[in-house]
Amino acid sequence: MEEAQHQTKRQKREIYRSSHKTEDGSAELPRKKFYRQRAHANPFSDHLLVYPESPASMDWSEYYPAFVQSQQASAAAPSEELSSGVTSTTNSMTKRVEVADIGCGFGGLLVALAPRMPDTLLVGMEIRTQVTQFVQDRIKALRNQNPENGEYQNIACLRANTMKFLPNFFDKSQLSKIFLCFPDPHFKARKHKARIVSTTLNSEYAYVMRPGGIVYTITDVEDLHNWMVRHFEAHPSFERLSKEEETADECVQVMQDETEEGKKVTRNNGNKYTACFRRLEDPPWP
Amino acid sequence: MRHPLQCIQLCHQRSDTGGSLLLAAAGPRIYLYNVDDGALLCSWPEISPSTDGKNAEFSPEAALEQGAKREAPESEEGPPGKRRKVSSSADAKVEDADRKAKSPPATELPAVSIVSQSPDGKYVVVVTSEDKAIRVFELLDGSTLNALSTRCMPKRPSSVIVTSDSTILCADKFGDVYSLPLLESEIKAVSNSEAEKEGDISESREEVYVPAATHLTVHTARNRMALENQMRMANKQVEKTGPSFAHDPIIGHVSMLTDMTFVTLEAEDGKRRNYILTADRDEHIRISRAPPQAHIIEKFCFGHREFVSKLCLPRWQPTRLVSGGGDDCLFVWDWLNGKLKQRIDLRPEVATALQSDGESKNTKGEPLQQKSNIAVSGIWDVSISNATSGKSEEIESPVRLILVACEGVPVLFSFSWIGEGIAEPPQFLNVEGNILDVAVLPNDSSIFITIDSSHKASSLTELREDETVPGLKAFGWSAQNNAWTKTSKFNNILETINGSNGPGTEVSPNPKKIRELIYGIENLRKRGYEE
Ligand SMILES: C[S@@+](CC[C@H](N)C(=O)[O-])C[C@H]1O[C@@H](n2cnc3c(N)ncnc32)[C@H](O)[C@@H]1O
């Protein structure tokens, strides 16, 4: 029974997707109900994930076609380093990604930030396939709606388990902003390592961020807020922004209002707890 | 069948006569040998003649300890309340008679998975697998292993290093690295009343001590007494130190850690910098600063496409890293800069090794097929100074070798290191079984190799029919032939270890358990990926 139901659901989805044809320039926004998926994905398991072998082997051009460099300009200098089999493609982009929305969900934050940071490349990273597909279709539709002004060319979404593979996508000090909006809480004590914030994962965030960069966090779960604050404050690479600095940062308001989860919490009159952390310079060696 | 020697290690300390000492682990036990005369100096846990019937081997240390225990049974037995404390598990109330009736085999002892030592050689650190315990021993007078502490870790350790500042770094299968003191000054016999006061401690500690033997394994009263004492000591230690594991790990991957190395380099400013390199199942090699700045990740070495299982920093050029895992090749890195320098294809070598290895292959021809995957199980650096050639016609540079073993391959690959990297092709050192471990005698330009004497060469599953294959082998480097050759220098120790009373003969081992212990590498490969 369940199997059959599942089948028809999938069939519907496929019919919908093929008729939707965002590839062909449709400007119709995708509908969420055709992209439903289980609420949680296990960050420890070996999903059939595709991820670059290294940041140098990541091909960003298909995600940001408007930021691909012209052919001659990108003629790469022969590197003396033994290439790992994949030709380096980062050279062919005019810009590098600087902002990551980790666990971006349905992409509300990306879409809201796109026009506010037109010269910056932003990427949403999401572990659930269907949700990723939704955001990708959504971005395509938005691009097709705005062909002249080039809006939404600076945002993209890709499927990734950031807890395992963040450093495969970004070089050391590449990012200036990381958003962690309404992460899954994982209430059980035993599952704390499944949380997207932990002392050891914070070292990876610090690695991909440049000094001065900001990590933005928001949640409606007070315990999780306290957990995130405690773990970032305890990490020597981060310091918390003061409340004044926080309110002065436009991104904080956007994160509160424009994420899908943020909207849901507003509708339910729930609390939103925000905290931002600055990446500090590494200390000299002891 | 006897248990193969899964780990061997030459001690940094020497015997009282200045000779080398070899530590060997077979199943649940470790043994200390004098390399020169082959004498067994000590073993742990002590071998009880009653349980292990056919073997009457006695370490002087064990005999001594048992003597001591006989002298003071009262004080060690203690009041009944104390005994309850010792065995905190539910079966504590089971009567002795019942225990005997349900007696499990001695193979229930946790198996030794790692043998390591402090840089000065004064301490030996052993990891036992099932109880996830880190056990610290003091090596006294180059002849006796004195058990100091047992600490159970939250997850199974996969690599353990003792640094020169007396810290144990422990990498585990949950992806975390913990730092713990080698010696804990507060590890002292806790008085009984104190222990009673800490009533709810079993809730606060993460792991309860799992004894190396249980009441069910030891039969004589004397041995039971010794065991109880051992358990009591261990439990106290865990009670004291257990909660300290609650603190955060110093490094963490969201993956399984497979290997770790620690290295000190001199920076341009002349200061010393300590690094920790960690390898995981998700193809990562991570370079972190060592404590107190272990939160800083310096680099990643990207290039592996399958799990990484082994890291080796050649001592003559520690800015290079040789790594191996589930890929078909070895990798050589300029790890400080995260740059791949060399990729050495192992596929032709492994194929040749399996073809050249005896008849068993040719009959069925299948092992080659089975070996469609390569899993590097060991990488060792060997530097042989040519002090032997006294004639000063030419100042000969030392011979530098990288030895590589792959799981289920009965050949040790011996690559020359020339200039800044590995030179191909390697020499083949054929042995009669799959290679388990290698120990290097630096001054003697010799190596010991242990092989799997339980399974057939080139197979991870087929048991041998013959029982005659010696588990320990010795080879010397011949400067004339520029090759490893059989040597008679070590006949004494080879005889003791390979003899009928050698290690691994006390317990009749369980083949499945052996397999789990010695062949874990290929299992690291991700299965979902084939799709
Ligand atoms: C509660 S949702 C929040 C979505 C969005 N940020 C918002 O505020 O509307 C959390 C999202 O994180 C994703 N996620 C969880 N673990 C992840 C991981 N390891 N890597 C990438 N995404 C992850 C989940 O699939 C889910 O879509």
In short:
Chain A has 286 residues and is of the alpha/beta class. Chain A contains nine helices and seven strands; from the N terminus they run αβαβαβαβαβαβαααβ.
Layout of strands and helices, then pairs:
The complex is a heterodimer of chains A (286) and B (531).
Chain A: H1 2-20, E1 97-102, H2 108-113, E2 121-126, H3 129-145, E3 155-159, H4 162-169, E4 175-181, H5 199-208, E5 209-219, H6 222-234, E6 238-240, H7 243-248, H8 250-258, H9 260-267, E7 273-279
Parallel strand pairs in A: 1-2, 1-4, 2-3, 4-5
Antiparallel strand pairs in A: 5-7, 6-7
Chain B: E1 5-14, E2 20-26, E3 29-34, E4 40-44, H1 60-71, H2 73-77, H3 80-86, H4 96-101, E5 112-117, E6 123-128, E7 133-140, E8 144-152, E9 157-162, E10 167-172, E11 176-181, H5 192-197, H6 201-204, H7 221-241, E12 251-252, E13 257-266, E14 272-280, E15 285-289, E16 297-300, E17 308-312, E18 320-325, E19 329-334, E20 339-345, H8 347-356, H9 358-364, H10 367-370, E21 376-384, E22 399-406, E23 411-418, E24 421-430, E25 435-441, E26 446-451, E27 472-478, E28 483-486, H11 491-498, H12 511-518
The complex binds S-adenosylmethionine.
Residues 41, 43, 103-105, 108, 125-128, 131, 160-163, 181-184, 196, 259-261 of chain A line the site of S-adenosylmethionine.
Overall description:
The complex is a heterodimer of chains A (286) and B (531). Chain A has helices at 2-20, 108-113, 129-145, 162-169, 199-208, 222-234, 243-248, 250-258, 260-267, and strands at 97-102, 121-126, 155-159, 175-181, 209-219, 238-240, 273-279. Chain A has 2 domains: 60-94, no CATH class; 95-286, Vaccinia Virus protein VP39 (Rossmann fold, 3-Layer(aba) Sandwich). Chain A starts with a helix and ends in a 7-residue tail after the last strand. In chain A, helix 8 crosses helix 9. The relative contact order of chain A is 0.13. Chain A is an alpha/beta fold. Chain A is globular, with a radius of gyration of 20 Å. Mean pLDDT of chain B is 79; it is low at 50-105, 186-224, 230-246 and 359-369. Chain B contains 12 helices and 28 strands. Chain B is globular, with a radius of gyration of 24 Å. Chain B has helices at residues 60-71, 73-77, 80-86, 96-101, 192-197, 201-204, 221-241, 347-356, 358-364, 367-370, 491-498, 511-518; strands spanning 5-14, 20-26, 29-34, 40-44, 112-117, 123-128, 133-140, 144-152, 157-162, 167-172, 176-181, 251-252, 257-266, 272-280, 285-289, 297-300, 308-312, 320-325, 329-334, 339-345, 376-384, 399-406, 411-418, 421-430, 435-441, 446-451, 472-478, 483-486. By secondary structure, chain B is of the alpha+beta class. In chain B, the strands form 7 sheets. Chain B has a 4-stranded antiparallel β-sheet with strand order 1-2-3-4. A 4-stranded antiparallel β-sheet of chain B has the order 5-6-7-8. Chain B has a 4-stranded antiparallel β-sheet with strand order 9-10-11-12, with no helix packed on it. The structure holds S-adenosylmethionine. Chain B: It is found in: Nucleus. Chain B: One of its GO terms (biological process) is tRNA (guanine-N7)-methylation. Chain B: Residues 50-113 are annotated as: Disordered. Chain B: Keywords: Nucleus, Repeat, tRNA processing, WD repeat. Chain B: InterPro entries: Trm82, WD40/YVTN_repeat-like_dom_sf, WD40_repeat_dom_sf, WD40_rpt. Chain A: Keywords: Methyltransferase, Nucleus, RNA-binding, S-adenosyl-L-methionine, Transferase, tRNA processing, tRNA-binding.
